[in-house]
């Protein structure tokens, strides 16, 4: 059985850690975006029911709501979005080797992964599954979370330049 070199093992571990970090960031940003759009919709609906403008939601309630959403969404949304991100990153990695445009391609891969995920969910379930992503702006915010996660992955896995000992 062939042994892997320590350099390859370290590089693989660095990519795995970078993917986990990017997935956590994407899930957190996607959850925050979801909470924001749900809170806006609730505020408007509550104000309309009262015959007034949008109802104010106190900051502490907004934070509590966002934390509750993160914990509630994370198991399913985090798993689905991370699986989509993995596919997007793998595809972007292949293209980046050919073109060298790592950051742009990994960002695009993350954004397109989320677009594909919500398109597949809408086609198979009839809904995107996340209320905060139903409108164009909510969907764009989710794609922005994928874009940021992909770019973060590119940054965390960028090739390290050889260090020189010259002054």
Secondary structure topology:
Elements: H1 6-49, H2 59-99, H3 102-125, H4 136-156
Helix pairs in contact: 1-2, 1-4, 2-3, 2-4, 3-4
Percentage of residues assigned to helices = over 70%
Instruction: Note the run of SSEs as H and E.
Output: HHHH
Task: Report the C-alpha radius of gyration, rounded.
Answer: 20 Å
Inertia-based shape: elongated
> What's the average pLDDT?
87
Compute the number of helices: 4
- The SS-based structural class is mainly alpha
Query: How many runs of DSSP E, i.e. beta strands?
Result: 0
The residue ranges in which pLDDT falls below 50 over 5 or more consecutive positions are none
The amount of beta strand, in percent, is under 5%
The major beta sheet can be summarized as: none
Distance between the termini: 44 Å
